[in-house]
Specification:
- The protein has five helices and five strands; from the N terminus they run αββαβαβαβα.
- It is an alpha/beta fold and about 150 residues long.
- A five-stranded mixed sheet has the order 2-1-3-4-5, sandwiched between helices.
């Protein structure tokens, strides 16, 4: 691995660790997911899974099933950018879990060019869609994060 590749590898691991820490903000019991959007070596947005603004911070119903209106971490991060003066063009999304198909559509439309994730999602559909349009997807397993 060359110097630039090693440097990027180390940055990827650091940002993923930060996303993992950010996931701790989630009130969801079943699964806590964190996301960071990085552009030009600056964090331009962050997000974690949870209920929309104005709702009580309870993600699961009485049976333990995730409520249908819970937002995924990447959707929260992308919508934060949309509310700012920034944009995601050419950025990297760091996320603790691979994106679902719905979030992958948002990632594509937002102009994100690279997705770095740790945990697998129950379906590869989202990653397949991203790869189809040329978005680089990189996985680092949890044991690599330290």
């Amino acid at each position: 691995m060359g110097y630039q590749e090693e440097k990027q590898h180390q940055l990827d691991l650091r940002y993923l660790r930060m996303a993992r820490i950010w996931a701790e903000n989630s009130y969801c019991v079943r699964r806590k997911v964190g996301a960071l959007i990085v552009k030009d070596k600056m964090i331009i947005s962050d997000g974690y899974n949870g209920t929309p603004s104005g709702f009580e911070n309870i993600c699961e119903d009485e049976t333990g099933k995730t409520k249908s209106y819970v937002l995924h971490a990447e959707a929260n991060a992308i919508t934060k950018v949309a509310k700012s003066a920034n944009n995601c063009d050419g950025s990297t999304l760091y996320i603790t879990a691979a994106p679902c198909i719905e979030c992958s559509k948002l990632i594509i439309q937002a102009g994100i060019r690279r997705v770095v994730y740790s945990d697998d999602y129950r379906s590869e559909e989202g990653l397949d869609l991203l790869r189809r349009v040329g978005i680089e997807c990189v996985q680092y397993k949890s044991d690599e994060l330290g």
